[in-house]
Amino acid sequence: MKNSLRALFSPILNFFEKGDEPYTYKPLNRKILIFMSTLFLSLAIIVAYLSGDNSDPGYLIPVVVFSVMAIIGLVVGLLGNDRAVSKIWGSR
CA-to-CA distance for 92 and 89, rounded, in angstroms? Predict the structure, then answer.
């Protein structure tokens, strides 16, 4: 199952997993990434729910931004290797 999901999200994972420079990885970074991504997804759902009846489409901007950040973070946190997680945090 994990291999098929990695193949599905390979464009995202390839961007963060490429390179051969040294990196510093801490297991806590993965847990924090998953937590923060879940928080962003919750924010996107709450904003979409609270402003769903408005006729102004401007509320979609934070929903899209938070959703994209959450999806990228969850994909890298759950499916990515150690290099991808450390690249998200910028630790090299």
Answer: 9
